[in-house]
Design brief:
With about 400 residues, this protein is of the alpha/beta class. The protein has 13 helices and 15 strands.
Amino acid sequence: MTTAASSVILGWGRSAVLPVGGTFAQLAPHQIAAPVLLAILQRYGIARAAVDTVIAGNALGAGGNPARMVALAAGLPDSVAALSVDTQCCASLDAVTLAHGLICAGNADIVIAGGVEAWSRAPIRQHRPRQVDAAAIPYDSPAFAPDPARDPDMLLAAARHALRAGITRTAQEAWSVSAHARAVAAQLRLQQEIVAIDGADHDSYPRLLQARHLARMPVASVSDDEGVDLAIRQAHAVSRIAISPRADGAAFVVIASAAAARKWGLTPQFAWRASVAVGALPETPMLAAIDASAALLRRSGQTMADMWTVELHDAFAAQALAYCAALQLPADRLNRSGGGLSRGHPIGASGAVSLVQLLADMQHAAPSGALGLAAIAAAGGIGAAALVARC
């Protein structure tokens, strides 16, 4: 956990968030991320020579050092250090927290931190066979807890919680309709933070949903709670429209010490106030964002009432509804521009995308000194949250 206010945010940006198999389908992670880095540096007048370190979250790259690939592809000096982070969905927000830690420790002055996911180009996964003559075993997702009973499928975990918390399919889909409507309404403004790559200059998922769209949405998961009537479980099922879809994308911020900003003649846009990473119950991974946000508020001495806005990467509509209920947050102060449900989910980049969205929304309308909170949860029951203040 970190609380020092000695870091400032100098700039930010992101790519469009696009469907797997879409415009970014042939691009490797560094080919999506490098244009974003270069555009941020140019937009905010930051010299490449000023950058000490690149930290990049990435969840599906299967090893290597994506951050180093990004730094070199962006033409940063060979001397720039590079660190890759894999805490799955939390990776890119954790990357920014790590950047702040490097700055506070005196190990860096200006860091570019965030994340990138080229889900379309994710390696084909296989477990090595244990016997010489056996075949490799393909798999889609690794284990996130050593006890299989504590490592449920993410969709099933969401459906179980929706049932137990009384969050109906109707309520989930109503949130989804609202999220998409907010994103559509904000589309022109959102393009200001998006770096166009191969002509892609806007998120392609947001759309105005009608009743006919909802009626044909397939159910993705139904709770398996024993002793509960099937009709009741189906009434609380998670449909496809209530899930943040698979996506490619990248997002980064430039974070620095106040002294480095002065040295290079750069204008701080936001102050980094606090951040936290926590562990929570693996059985209900999407609720870890609640735990992280609550810990952050305790750590910073703030309350939700102090927040001008909150940006949660809502992988599920049920997650957003649970978050608002647990933290007593009015729904109109969460995800003003639609959130992850309407954008899509580029796993290793999603936390940074949420942070960039928070910064852009606050720069657009928040008064000086206003506070904003970004949060995300990840498989295995881990959560991350960050608190910023507008300069």
